[in-house]
Design a protein that fits this description.
The structure holds two protein chains of two kinds.
Chain A (H helix, E strand, L loop, with lengths): L2 H4 L4 H22 L14 E6 L8 H9 L19 E5 L9 E5 L8 H5 L5 E3 L5 E3 L9 H5 L6 E2 L8 E2 L5 H5 L5 H5 L5 E5 H14 L19 E4 L19 H8 L1 H22 L7 H9 L1
Parallel strand pairs in A: 1-9
Antiparallel strand pairs in A: 1-8, 2-3, 4-5, 6-7
Helix pairs in contact in A: 2-9, 2-10
Chain B lengths: L15 H28 L1 H4 L10 H12 L1 H12 L6 H25 L8 H4 L6 H25 L5 H9 L1 H21 L17 H28 L5 H28 L3 H4 L4 H22 L1 H5 L1 H25 L13 H24 L3 H9 L2
Helix pairs in contact in B: 1-16, 3-5, 3-15, 4-5, 4-9, 4-10, 5-7, 5-10, 5-16, 5-17, 7-8, 7-9, 9-10, 10-11, 10-15, 11-13, 11-15, 13-15
The chains are: A alpha+beta, B mainly alpha.
Chain lengths: ~300, ~375
């Protein structure tokens, strides 16, 4: 029995092997954590919707308009969550501090400036258009549901009742927009709680409303900076965290993962080079010829 | 070399009843699992599972991520033998690389059941999104499963006396191993990157900018540990003596990587200011305590003791503890440490459990049968003796 066979795998061997990988991956992970806070870049012509909670009476006309526009059966009573055939609904919030009566919060896709759903989507079925809407290509989707985890607003819904299920979410009525119309919910809103327009103009409008009635509004437009900004902008008399809005920083959700993903070629190259080099060094030390020799030895052995 | 001979009379017939009962149970589980899986494919995910919009991923994804980490047995052992040129570890590598292939095969079955549009399984080849961690994982799993097929194919090819292709694979075994290690370090770490897109959902004790690195390191820990268990099990099936020194050497490796993992994880918790959450003794604190304390700190310390590394009981218990810790980690990240604003809960239904048990049982059964009937115990023994 040769001495070689008795030798144990020393800690040094492991560190040498794993060390190279660890180095590459540490670099990838640590630098990934140092992504600068983003400056939100929004296309100047990007559209949005201003949702003024002080003007909403909870009539739910938007729910019915949305269902009609998307060919879903009309709602029976009020919806209480987003689902495969409810792309928007009015969330009723009772006893909220700062509001006289119940507040009605219209929920739908926020159409983020930097959508995490689109970044996460395995097959690129979700897509951010420069005009603002985040669209969904049902023909590509494999139904993996990663978008449901990536979305900080819990928007994408899955068709649980289908044998071959897909994702459903508000599409900003992109077909109507292309025909020069407004989204169905905005068109049918009887109280002016919803206002469609260029995102920049809507932000000016929101500032003007808050200036004119500082008693009526909280001095915060939800969606201006949240997670890097959203196309849907909310004005409220009450604090947003009391209305079920997540507290998100101004950092776009997908920045961190995207930074790490960008290092993929570098990591692959580093690992492959380090592994080949290591193998070559070890073979040379053992004076048993080139790396490929290992294969020949293998065969004679069997 | 001093080898502990557990079964001195190699001609003694195997205790047939025990293995027969085992095969029967595994076959039954596999069969019910296949039935449950077909049922799910017919009725869809709504009726077939307990998943919901609040918990779109369930126990299947937990098994996926665990199995991928455990299947790290293949790339770690192939790297030890071919890249670190430690040929004496070859008897450990053979069952470990086989377990890796069957682990990835199981993952493919799980993914198939989990996809809403399983008929579009191939779409990641047609439609690319390079930002998506899942896109990268899909490609790496596809390519790496190919690597595992190549690495395992001589077992079958040699049975049919096909010398040519076997020779070709042996000739390129180094580049194949380099490819395996590269693909593995990519997707094992990207499974962690996947969670970077969920800062709003994953509990801060688990969410970390180091997730990619931590997932890679824990796959090395789990891979080496599974290789140890697979080697001991294969020895029993072959009625061959197991080389305790090899197991001791691997235990040292596990201790080193696990200590590195623990120090990074603890350092990260302290740096993130989450130490109070770790010591809060609430649900999350206990979950992290179990996976990190029982599943990493304890086995790492045990494996630092030479007497533990030398004893079979010590080797096996340490490896099982590490596997438990990594299993906990993957299930915590997918399920238990996921928070929802609505406070909804998820508890898997019987179809999910039966299909999961079936897939795992099928992989174990296939591994057992291959070890027993496809691999000559002499191969492994010779690999130790004649190098």
């Amino acid at each position: 029995m040769s001495k070689k066979a008795e030798r144990q795998l020393s800690r040094r061997d492991f560190l040498r092997g794993v060390g190279a990988l660890t180095g590459a991956l540490t670099l990838e992970s640590v630098t990934g954590s140092r992504v600068e806070a983003s400056e939100t870049e929004v296309a100047p012509d990007a559209v949005g919707v201003l949702i003024d909670l002080t003007r909403c009476t909870g009539c739910r006309t938007c729910e019915a308009a949305c269902k009609a526009a998307h060919g879903f059966p009309p709602p029976d009573g009020g919806e209480t969550s987003l689902s495969a055939d409810t792309l928007t609904y009015v969330d009723v919030r009772e006893n909220v501090e700062g509001a006289d009566g119940p507040l009605h919060v219209k929920r739908q896709c926020m159409h983020c400036v930097h959508p995490a759903c689109a970044s996460a989507c395995t097959v690129g079925a979700l897509h951010k258009t420069p005009e603002g809407p985040v669209t969904y290509n049902a023909g590509k989707c494999i139904g993996c549901r990663y978008c449901q985890y990536a979305c900080p607003f819990g928007v994408p819904a899955f068709q649980w009742e289908e044998t071959l299920g897909l994702i459903a979410k508000c599409d900003f009525c992109i077909n109507r927009l292309e025909e020069g119309q407004q989204p169905a919910c905005v068109s049918d809103c009887p109280t002016g709680a919803l206002k469609f327009g260029k995102r920049r103009a809507l932000l000016r409008e929101a500032a003007a409303r808050m200036d004119t009635h500082p008693d009526r509004y909280l001095n915060h437009v939800y969606g201006e900076h949240e997670a890097g900004g959203t196309s849907m902008l909310y004005l409220s008399p009450a604090r947003f965290e009391d209305l079920g809005f997540p507290e998100l920083g101004s950092q776009p959700i997908p920045r961190r993962a995207e930074f790490v993903m960008k290092q993929t070629p570098m990591v692959a190259l580093t690992v492959a080079t380090a592994a080949s080099g290591l193998c070559w060094l070890r073979t040379r030390r053992e004076e048993s010829g080139a790396c490929v020799e290992a294969g020949k030895k293998e065969r004679t052995k069997r | 070399m001093s080898v502990t001979t557990r079964y001195p009379e190699r001609t003694r017939p195997a205790p047939i009843t025990v293995s027969q009962i085992g095969i029967a149970i595994l076959s039954l589980l596999t069969f019910t699992g296949v039935m449950a899986g077909i049922w799910r494919l017919i009725v869809g995910l709504g009726e077939g599972t307990a998943l919901s919009n609040a918990y779109p991923w369930g126990v299947w994804i937990g098994f996926d991520f665990t199995l991928i980490a455990f299947s790290g047995s293949a790339f770690t052992m192939a790297s030890v033998v071919y890249l670190l040129q430690r040929a004496e570890y070859r008897p450990v590598m053979v069952p470990a690389v086989l377990a890796g292939l069957l682990g990835y095969a199981a993952v493919l079955f799980f993914l198939f059941l989990d996809l809403g549009r399983w008929d579009r399984f191939h779409h990641f080849i047609l439609y690319w999104n390079v930002h998506s961690p899942l896109f990268e994982i899909c490609w790496c799993v596809l390519l790496y499963t190919t690597v595992l097929f190549l690495e395992n194919s001589p077992l079958v090819l040699e049975r049919f006396g096909l010398e040519k292709p076997v020779e070709l694979i042996h000739r390129y075994v180094i580049p194949i191993s380099v490819a395996g290690l590269t693909l593995s370090s990519l997707h094992q770490s990207t499974l962690g990157t996947l969670y970077l897109n969920m800062p709003h959902r994953l509990h801060p004790l688990w969410y970390s900018p180091l997730l990619s690195l931590l997932f890679f390191l824990s796959s090395v820990m789990a891979g080496l540990s599974l290789a140890m268990i697979a080697y001991v099990a294969a020895g029993r099936i072959w009625r061959e003596a197991v080389n305790s020194e090899l197991l001791g050497g691997l235990a040292r490796g596990v201790a080193g990587v696990t200590l590195l993992y623990v120090s990074l994880k603890l350092g990260d918790i302290v740096q993130a200011g989450e130490l109070s959450a770790l010591l809060a003794f609430d649900r999350m604190s206990w979950l992290m305590g179990a996976e990190l304390g029982l599943g990493a700190v304890l086995p790492a310390l045990l494996f630092l003791i030479p007497a533990v590394r030398r004893s079979r009981r010590g080797q096996v218990s340490g490896a099982i503890l590490v596997l438990f810790g990594v299993l906990m980690n993957r299930f915590n990240a997918t399920l238990f440490a996921q928070t929802t604003p609505s406070g909804e809960t998820y508890s898997p239904n019987s179809i999910e459990w039966l299909s999961a048990m079936g897939i795992v049982a099928g992989a174990v059964l296939a591994w057992y049968l291959a070890i027993r009937y496809l691999i000559e115990p002499e191969d492994a023994a010779h690999a130790v003796a004649h190098h």
